[in-house]
Amino acid sequence: xxxxxxxxxxxxxxxxxxxxxxxxxxxxxxxxxxxxxxxxxxxxxxxxxxxxxxxxxxxxxxxxxxxxxxxxxxxxxxxxxxxxxxxxxxxxxxxxxxxxxxxxxxxxxxxxxxxxxxxxxxxxxxxxxxxxxxxxxxxxxxxxxxxxxxxxxxxxxxxxxxxxxxxxxxxxxxxxxxxxxxxxxxxxxxxxxxxxxxxxxxxxxxxxxxxxxxxxxxxxxxxxxxxxxxxxxxxxxxxxxxxxxxxxxxxxxxxxxxxxxxxxxxxxxxxxxxxxxxxxxxxxxxxxxxxxxxxxxxxxxxxxxxxxxxxxxxxxxxxxxxxxxxxxxxxxxxxxxxxxxxxxxxxxxxxxxxxxxxxxxxxxxxxxxxxxxxxxxx
Length: 378
What we know:
The chain is of the alpha+beta class.
């Protein structure tokens, strides 16, 4: 499948984009108690879905017009954005994960993305579409998460002058640094809490402080997780190699999602034992999904599986993929995994066909790798 032709079907003309609402809260570091969300009674979305509790950046459900939900089956639902961004992102995922895809470039790209299962809609509101995606944090008990926007420009070639100026004002150093920390949360081993940093923290980082700013993500309150940095570098290098080979897609305002296990390995075994003894049926401990939600899903599963958009939705596909994912997880758990680290590309509302290398994204990746290596060396 020719990605240029496929993406070319989208309306690539100039569009007026409403600026995304800023995240609430000050730019300074915020600390949240370990069980804050467990006792707060999360707002329930369609069919028992809840807002993604560990989201560190982007549109948030209940705060912005669109947002991300967590489905009781362990996947995440990303609400489709208004045109042209939403349809463009849907087209991108559909192209990369097409059943008949035989493009080696796209097939290799799949390993760097969250798995895409289908579109999803609630029977109560079948016109409100979501992208049904893998929850990259699902296998982590204390997931430390960082969202880093990559590239020298956070606006696409079809953005209005107003949009360009707005994005430049948000972070004037984007062209020089090549990446921007949009948000992160880090598990502090000693205090047993997560420390969170929002987008204002990232925008406050300049060339001389960006290394220390990134370093905070890998510090657990006791030591610097050099093992995680090393594993992260290897994964970013793999993504860079893909970009250096391909010249058919350009990415703007896209991010890398970093995830690692914040729970020390010696505590992890104890944590697993206690969790299994307490409740073997809990679907998602780290994401604050209670057993009742798992039960609710089993009751509504038949309704969830109904296709409200037959031309776009294939629930049998994502169901089989989920089953395979669970099998892979069981196989992985029986093996020794020294470093639990994930680095995935996310956010594809501004991906366009191209005939040249994505120099802006490549520049950002190389500079990010340089800073990560400096942290290791120091």
